[in-house]
Design brief:
The protein has 164 residues and is of the alpha/beta class. It has helices spanning 18-27, 54-57, 134-144, 150-163, and strands spanning 2-3, 8-12, 31-41, 72-76, 81-84, 89-91, 95-98, 124-129. The strands form two sheets. Strands 1, 2, 3, 4, 7 and 8 form a six-stranded mixed β-sheet that branches. A two-stranded antiparallel ribbon has the order 5-6. The radius of gyration is 16 Å and the shape is globular.
Length: 164
Amino acid sequence: MCFIDADEFLVSTNGSNLKDVLSGFYALEDAGALALNWRNFGSSGHKFKDEGLVIERFTYASKQDHDFNRHIKTILKPSMVERMHVHECILKSGRYYSGNLQPTVFENGSPCEPKTSKVLYDEIRVNHYVVKSRHEHVMKKEHKGSGAGSAERKRVRLTLRRTI
């Protein structure tokens, strides 16, 4: 089971089929969840909505080591999960693994703070098209809101403008 938003896409980073990449995770008996880091994409200089796929229109992304990219999204084995939060889960058995199928190292040593200590794009990641064009951002994100609070959304938008 995977918890991602409509503006997020699972991407194989080594050219492999996603099914092949994920089969290694499912084969690990003690793997309860897979922590996938974000790669945040900005407006790529677009001011207005244009025709075409999001993955083709927006190609400029933050640097891999940017702090926002340490956030995770989760793929999990439901039978091993006690509770799901927005980005992470509390496991009743097993542990978190990263896309490279090594145990995940979290920022504070716990998946309760859903940020990894290091951004890993080995094998698989989540491409997050967080801003899109300025017009799309203002028309949808600003008015609709998001899981983040208003002040947090503005801070993220300003930081992404400076780094992307």
